[in-house]
Amino acid sequence: PAGAIFSMNIVGLRELVKKRFKLRAHFSVQSEVCLIGVGAYFEAFCGDHFASILNLCPQLLVRLKEKGRDVTLDATDLLNLGLQSPHFGSIVAERYDFETPQSINSLYQHLLQITPFSTQERKRYEQILNDRNLLVHHGDISTMKYTKQSRSAGDRVHYDSIRVSKPAFLEIAAFLEGIVHKTVKASHTKLIEFMEQQEITPSEAHAKGIHALLWVD
Question: Considering the entire predicted model, what is its pTM?
Fold first, then answer.
């Protein structure tokens, strides 16, 4: 389950950020690298959990199509996976964008009528993405785009850099972990409701898979 994988990965990041290496005091390399990592793991969770739901209940593809989403399958993909593959949902989910809170909310709204981010949570995640993208693409040195997005002072743009402290990383990790738990629970409830409304009886294997979605610790 995507939630369980995220939880295992975040445990490793927390352990890494708590370690003490012989670095100069003002360096925050561990926290910065872990921020990049937790952002990647969270984005992967959003896509993988979405795909798992479609794999377990492909009837939801109809709902996505009604919302104008592309649900077509490449015949060669089916040949590569095997015609009886249970991964049709994974193929479809690969083409969707799970990079921003807006796109994540929109996709889950179309799939199960839930939104992982509230308005305040969306703003918080946008701040996290701004910091993470600055680290990934600019080595943490501030840019005009970052200054505008973060509404920070622009007189030292291209000179100042951000620093991610250990407490700051742990707060971010806890925030994203909370979004994961909330999304897992809400999507499981809505998936069960959809299947009951559509009178869909899952196979024994699918029933186990649906229950396993709740495993996040």
Answer: 0.86
Q: What is the mean pLDDT of each run of 10 residues along the chain (217 residues)?
A: 95 86 61 92 97 94 94 77 70 93 98 97 94 74 57 53 83 97 97 96 92 86
Helices (H), 143-197: 144-150, 166-197
- 3 token code pair: 């939630």
User: Would you tell me the crossing angle of helices 119-138 and 29-56 to the nearest 10 degrees?
Assistant: 120
**Three-state SS for 156?**
coil
Alpha-carbon distance of 198 to 182, in angstroms, equals 24
Structure tokens at 72: 């077509």
3 state DSSP class of 154:
coil
Show Cβ contacts of residue 20 under 8 Å, excluding neighbours closer than 6 positions. none
Contacts of the segment 145-153: beta carbons below 8 A, 24+ positions apart: none
* Both structure tokens of 126: 């946008």
